[in-house]
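Our platform keeps sequence and structure together, in a single record for each protein. Such a record has a labelled line for the sequence and another for the backbone structure tokens. This encoding replaces a full spatial description with a residue-level series of whole-number codes. Below, we set out a record of this kind in full and without editing:
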Amino acid sequence: MTDTSLLKHAPQIGAEAIALLEQLSNASGVSGDEGAVRALVLEQVRPLADSARVDALGNVIAFKAGTQGDARPKVMLAAHMDEVGLMISADDGDGLFQFQVVGGIDARQLAGKAVLVGKARIPGVIGARAIHLTSPEERRNTIPLSTLRIDVGPGEAASRVEPGDRAAFATRFRHSGPSLMGKALDNRLGVATLIELLRAAPENIDLTCVFTTQEEIGLRGAGAAAYSVQPDFAIAVDSTPANDLPAWDGTENARYNTRLGYGPAIYSYDRGTISDPRLVRWLARTGEEYGIPFQMRQPGGGGTDAGAIHQQRAGVPSVSVSVPGRYPHTAILLARLEDWQNTVRLLWVALRAMPEGLLAEE
């Protein structure tokens, strides 16, 4: 019989963890320019880990050795630090700048959004012609990305913006009742989860927490990190779209993918990875035995760092676990605090109670 008292020792998400998530969410970290997020991560993990280093691609690799047993498994947890955003591509003068999207962003979401440009976080707004000045024909069509501009105003502010600067959404984090709202919670929720797990690292494993770069543009940091770490198996911790709103025509939504309030989502298959079935069964079994809510993410598109991790060297058994969230890859994502808490619980208990010979299963 399972001793469920172990659950009492799992990390709890309290005010301190939520305050850290707020800092992480508000920091700018568009792919390839994750420095502000990396600084926050290093500040947190250096006192917790036996070692913490930054590799050539900017990944933070934090290692904590276990203290129980002689043949501890080497476990890699990965969460990406980067977020979707924009990059300045040309200066039109008078404080107006052309830009390109970085990562998967729908141009329909951009007009009127406030942004922060460059390391100086210069305020700007994504401008389009006002509805009063457009024709009925124009209003029937999506605004082309090429006609949008970031407007920071003329003068000193404009002189500090250059092509190549990243622009992040200016949304501020909020904790409202059961909900967490902010930009880049894909995947600062995963980043904060890894920090909490490192803070209470299970003694029965050698744990490496990798905070990766450039996930949103091709899983680039994770592949290099996994090649270096050489884990026995890996778990990518991420955020996944909660497609739980009514269907577009108002009918019942039969393709929910994942839903808010139903716990962490365990992946069996996505565009980049067929999860190792032994790891899928282990996580699901843990949830069932310990009464931790979880859901199986419906197979389909999307992907996580696991897509790059599992292909390194001779192969790395991998699985993904995500916190569901609504409105990803826009200026704001909405998630549930209880889903984040249960993600931390599921991962910690699964690692702490991991059976010997897990990967020997057929």
